[in-house]
Amino acid sequence: MSTADRGPLRLGTRKSLMATTQSQLVADALTEATGHAVELVGVTTEGDVSKALLAQIGGTGVFVNALRDRLLAGEVDFAVHSLKDLPTGPADGIALAATPARDDPRDALCGPCKLADLPRGARVGTGSPRRVAQLRALRPDLDVVAIRGNADTRLRKVADGELDAVVLAHAGLRRIGRLDAVAEVFDPDQMLPAPGQGSLALECRADRDDLRALLGTVDDPMTRACVTAERTVLAVLEGGCSAPVGTYAAEVEEELHLTAAVAAIDGSRQIRMSASGHPDDAEQLGRDLAHRLLAQGADQLMGERD
Length: 306
Ligand SMILES: NCc1[nH]cc(CCC(=O)O)c1CC(=O)O
Description:
By secondary structure, this protein is α/β, with parallel strands linked by helices. It has helices at about 15-35, 45-50, 65-70, 130-140, 150-160, 170-175, 210-215, 220-235, 280-295, 300-305, and strands spanning about 10-15, 40, 80, 95-100, 105-110, 125, 145, 165-170, 180-185, 200-205, 245-250, 255-265, 270-275. It has three domains: about 5-100 and about 200-220, Periplasmic binding protein-like II (D-Maltodextrin-Binding Protein, domain 2); about 105-185, D-Maltodextrin-Binding Protein, domain 2, CATH 3.40.190; about 230-305, Double Stranded RNA Binding Domain (2-Layer Sandwich), CATH 3.30.160.40. The chain contains ten helices and 13 strands. The strands form three sheets. The protein has a five-stranded mixed β-sheet with strand order 2-1-3-10-4, sandwiched between helices. The protein is globular and about 60 Å long. Keywords: Porphyrin biosynthesis, Transferase. InterPro entries: HemC, Porphobilin_deaminase_cofac_BS, Porphobilin_deaminase_N, Porphobilinogen_deaminase_C, Porphobilinogen_deaminase_C_sf. GO terms for molecular function: hydroxymethylbilane synthase activity.
C-alpha cells in the first residue's frame, strides 16, 4: 500500500506547547508541499516525566526514544524532534529524513536586563553545562543555578522572583510565543549554541522509502550541512546534549564556516577554534575541527566537573 492510500500521515510528537507548535509547523509545510493531510499524535517521553536533571539521567535520548519506539512499531509514520535533543549516533532502523530550514540558533537571556547589567551575584538559571560554563566565563560573579522543566516553567521562576534570569533557546521561545521575555540575544562570540540548536529533525523508519522521499520535500540542504558539521564535532568529542560543547555553523560566501568551543564547567578556561570548507564536506570539517580541539586538550577540559 502506498503512502497516499493510508489516509492522513501520523506525526508523532511530544505534547509540550513547544513540541506541538513545531510539529504543526512541519505538518503545514508538508501539506503545502505534497497535498497530504497530517495528523498529530501526542507521545509522552521519559524526558517529560522525569524530574531528574538532564545531566543526571544521561541526557541523550530521553526526549527521543519513546517516539522512535512508536515509529518502529508502525504506530506513527514520522516524528518531529528538536534536533539538539537527538543523540549523535545512528539509531537502528531509523532514518533522518529531513532537516527543515533552521530557526535562529542562538541562546537568549530572559530577565529584567542584559547580562552586563545584572547585579553582582544575581541568580541565573540553566540546566545545561554548556550554558553554565559560558555564563561563568562571561560573568564569574553570578550565582548560576541548575534548573529544568519546560521553558514556561523556567520563565515563571523569573516572574516569581525565585531567579533573576534564565537562559533559553531563542527558537524555542519564538515557538511558544514568548519572545517578549527576551532581554538579550547572545552573539555566538559570547555564547556558542548547542549543536543543532534551532533546527528540527524529521525521522521515519529507514525501510519506508516512500516516506523518506515525501518528507525530503521539506529538507533544507544548507541546514543539513550546518547541523552535520556541528553534530560531528559533538560526536567526535563523545559528548551528548549535556556536554559543555558549543558550536555554530553558518553559510558565509557559499562556504560553510564552523566554530566550536569546549569550556571548563567553572568558566576558567575555553578552547575555541574555527574552520571553513565546502558544505558537501560538512562531516569532514566537523571531524577535523574536533580533532584539533582534542589536540589542544579538549578532552581534559570536558572531564573536569565541579
Ligand atoms: N533542552 C530542551 C530543548 N530542546 C530544544 C529546545 C529549544 C528549541 C531548539 O533548540 O530547537 C529546548 C529548550 C531550550 O534549550 O531552551
